[in-house]
Write a structure and sequence with these properties.
Elements lengths: L1 H16 L4 H13 L11 E7 L3 H7 L1 H22 L4 E7 L2 E6 L5 H16 L2 E3 L2 E3 L3 E7 L6 H16 L6 E3 L11 H11 L5 E10 L5 E12 L3 E3 L1 H10 L3 H16 L7 E6 L1 H5 L3 H12 L6 E6 H4 L3 H12 L4 E7 L7 H5 L4 E4 L11 H16 L3 E4 L5 H10 L3 E2 L10 H11 L1
Parallel strand pairs: 6-7, 9-11, 11-12, 12-13, 13-14, 14-15, 15-16
Antiparallel strand pairs: 1-3, 1-6, 2-3, 4-5, 8-9, 8-16, 9-10
Helix pairs in contact: 3-4, 4-5, 5-8, 7-8, 9-11
Amino acid sequence: MRATIDTITSKLEERMTGLTALDSARQRFDEWGQGATAGTREPHVHAMLISLRRFDTVNRAYGADAGDGVLGEIAARIVHFAQDDIDAPTFVARVAGGSFLLAAHEACSRERWHLLAEQLADAVARPVDTSAGIVRLTPRVALVRALMGETFASMHDRLSDALEQAGRSEGTHLVWARGEAVPRGSTTSELEADLMGAIDGGQIEILFQPQFSLPDDRLTGAEALARWNHPELGRIGAGSLFAIAARTDQIGPLSRHIAAKALEAAREWPGDVRLSLNITPADLAFGSYVRQMTDLVRESRFPPRRLTLEITEQALIGDIGLAAQTMAEFCAQGIRIALDDFGAGFCNFRYLKLLPLHYLKLDRSMIEGITRDKRDVAVLRAIVAMARALDLEVIAEGIERDDQRDAIAAEGCAYYQGFLRAEPMSAASFAAMVATEA
């Protein structure tokens, strides 16, 4: 009877948050352990347990539906973080209540895993926009480097003990599980100082994620992505990079650097190949952002009509009026606007009414189930129909299989990107792709 209850709970869990069920997570952990190379000194698995403080107050104050919505949003943020910032196999599972487990099959340094936990905590702590109001939750995070041969239960117990320890210490939000070595290497303050020289030192690399049209699979453009190639910690993803930049008031210079480098590379692209750049909340809040961006476009000689700026719902929570005004100024110059990660949050349809949009960019969570769940197909079909009625084109992210590509083509999506056709690549590699395909 207990096994049956656990199975039902797991299925409900996957449906509500889209995460790996705990039983599946345990199995994945065991597989990673069995595949570890004998004699390896570095731990083969790193994990963190994220707990939302006072999550029960959300259900009491706003109701169970709002609580489920918040969990779905937090789950999406953790999954996105894992996909964007960890270059290794990962899984994310909900443990219980407002607790989530993230694990990676990566022998990274302790300092890098600590940095990733800090950046994920920042992402989780951002306000959540619900139909009942804005919800703010503070996470506590426990970290662990799994021991060779350690069981899933042992690792989870150590994480749980560490979280309990953090709960007894007011102001402690991040703690390592027992048995870990004393931290060495780069501290957070040192990383912040490193960033100031990273831009000029050529450590910020711009990668390009190709985009393709449907149904003909023609190469149409690319989204620019930033990575920091730190000389000691290795590659640091865009989420961690921008979080560090925010603490040092370097977001403006970082955004301008990324835009300038991407526009410089895209200037050589032939025909109508488009470039997509991401807009951060800090960009929108910056008074001269429109002027600075248009100056960069003019100096690069890249045609504004071939530029798309992507903005997420999270960036719009602060001041929707300012965002609408900013986008209208860009649109007046021929630049197009995409609402990014649509479906990852609460899909506030008011944004579709107020903002001058050209594209809806579907979050990968909206695509994962379309080949096996009729309800997922129905939701996709409704979104495409709504977009068509609003004269918007739909871009699908995270396409990794042929059956997913066929499904979105059948439902009327106009464009897609994902590992099915191409992973993010260097400027030189994308230029070579453009030369052969565009």
